[in-house]
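Re: the 191-residue chain
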Amino acid sequence: MAVYVKTGEIGVEIGDNENSNPDFKPLSVTLRGRWSANNVPRGTTARHSPLLRLPDLPGMYLFLNVEARTARVVDPLQYEDNASIKLAWREYQDGLEPLPEQKIEKMTDGDVASWVYWIGRLIEKGEATKLDGSAELPDIDDIPGDPVISPFNARFGQPRTLGEMELFLRHTNLFDRLRRELQEESAPTRQ
């Protein structure tokens, strides 16, 4: 797979070993995490679910360039080398389209510190993995400014348009539905 990290960027893929969709506090959004059939608990009926035949779906990518004071949120489904994955998932989830890239520029010291802090938390909790070619995440104490630790950051807020909100919700709702279906299939039947 190609490397999408630009020089000087910290890059992570969202995802854990439970197919979760974690919140990213600096943007006040839930991001689609990596989904893998290998992370689905094997129950008696879930073993035969058509979901388990779907290819792994990459999680959203977060990129931060501390020096340039820029950040990006990228859906790797937009990349050509993920075309077959996108096609397979479209058959399961009608209308699954890559989310538009979100760029954040002219970040303040506090914005950069917040991204460093929360990316570090995601990595620490196992909810994100550094991408190949990523710059090292600096120590939060080496970043000027104070991170916003509260769950809402009004500077970034929610997606700007109804279309963006619908796309974010469609992606997170898909995984909520997948999790429910697999739990129902895995649940022992009562007689």
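The helical segments are 83-92, 109-124, 162-186.
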